[in-house]
Sequence to fold (197 residues):
Amino acid sequence: MLLLWVGLAVLLVANVMTAPTSAASAAKATQASKRRQSDRSVLTRSPPANTWVVLVGTSRFWFNYRHSLNAFQFYQYLKQSGVTDDKIMLMVPTDHGCSPKNIFPGTLYHEESHTQNWLCDDVEVDYKAEDLTAESILNLLRGRYEDLLPKSKRLITGPNTRIFIYFNGHGGNGFFKIQDTDLVHSPDLAKVLKEMH
Fold:
């Protein structure tokens, strides 16, 4: 059985619990709290060898700097937590660190104090520029690859593989934009997730 987590930005927001109204509700709330705590820590404890993380920053252009930055921040968090590059698929369309509009070339900062550069020396971007399309994302998840695609750009999965997927960018009800011109639609993603399961 393939276990899968699909993470959107809301996954990182803490859940707010209301006060239970009965003993049964209190027990359910306690169980739910333990499950959420376990889910939150699944990527911070030493991950099993069959765990993969797919990080997708979907927006190009300088004014969408924050979407790539969010993917790089998550990438660094995972690496600091013990997840190795060979288990992370990092997909970002544009190299914002090298943009001529970046007044701090080769860096990505999220605060004015510039204390933490999120674009590290050992970053490994697996899909970028024209490689990042709706089709390439869906094919990566399905395990459908061209014969000459390197193993480093493939998810090597099995029946007990766990995959965490994080999308960051623009979208709307039922779709997610890829590089501002391509779309991943909910039914297409749902179909792929069923194929994976």
